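Quick start: load a record and inspect it. Here is Decapping nuclease:
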Amino acid sequence: TKRRRSRSASPASLSPPSTHKLAFSATASTAGPSPAFQQPTQLISFSYTPEREFEFTDSALRYLVQPPRNAQLAHAYDRWERRPERRSRIDGLLRALSAARAKRHPALASGVGVVAWRGVMTRILTSPYEEREGWDLNVMCVDGVLYFEEHLSDARLREKNDIEPRHRLQTYFGYAFESYCTSHTPGGANVPQNPGDPPGWGGDVDTNVQWCSVVRTKLGDTRMIIGGEVDCVREKYTGATDTFVELKTSLVIRGPHDEVKFEKKLLKFYMQSFLLGVPEILVGFRTPAGQVSTTQVFKTVEIPRLVRGKPHAWDPTTCLRWGNAFLGFLQAQLKGQPERDVWRVRFTPGMGVELRLLDAAEVDDVVAGEERVGFL
Ligand code: A3P
Ligand code: MG
Ligand code: MG
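Running the structure step on this input writes:
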């Protein structure tokens, strides 16, 4: 904060903020091969404890188990330890990256181009097909490396914390499904802890607890460090991404309209898992009241084929082309700019992105009231 404040007095910040645009139209028609995407390899993993303490352990790692038939996802809703919605900071990821660097991880021998949480990269890459939700990012370019952080406005943050009870329950359904589908020990069956717990309940939901994997991968010519939460592993933890499993819930498909909705949603499921190298997604199809009626395993690599040729189809190569153009655009704009500058990228659905330099007051807002490790 101190360093940034001192920069705000420098003459450069007195010049008007510059704005640069990248429209979808500039990249959409570019046919030709898709930029290559390298299979992600894990650099390091870490956990958040129930006290929300960061630790370099696998204490929060969980193993896949078969959920019981007709699992009730509203179970123990009143016992949910809910982590308040916060601005998701890059600090934990930077700590993990520093630790990997200190251990001289061989995968870090060559230069890195981008550091970001998986959620941010998913938003960027799926934006060609996003029809409703815009997003904002904060970006810094330090030593040629782009660091991304999601930016939630105060209003958006309040909205997320004041969601309707019905929506909050639906969110809980996703976490309750994780409880039924996972166990603390490999091959272990879940033994309920409380007298009222149903068979197979894996313990009350605490959304402070997370197990995260940090991977290295490459899109086109840009090496990327991506961190993200992994729901569980199948049977054993190998230290690689090959046993990772993503868990999802979705409404039971009752007709063609639901099917279209689900197949559109598959883009997010796909990209989220693809970026971290997660090979399998287990979907629990639930009733509106939260009873799981069926489960289905999707192999991540096979998902694009399921939608190909349909009127509502999406194409991952469009996403990768856009992502590659987006990164190239930022690299070109930010190269040679002062390293302490913080930039804001705004995505508008159907249009593209706009990049502008934040002024000193806005940068102070970005860091306000937070203990930061900092970008370096
Ligand atoms: P479902 O996806 O099963 O509904 P993730 O699937 O990424 O592991 O996230 C676990 C759960 O967190 C989700 O379960 C959902 O309930 C909630 N969640 C994740 N991202 C969300 C978002 N952007 N908005 C609301 N809830 C979200
Ligand atoms: Mg998850
Ligand atoms: Mg999940």
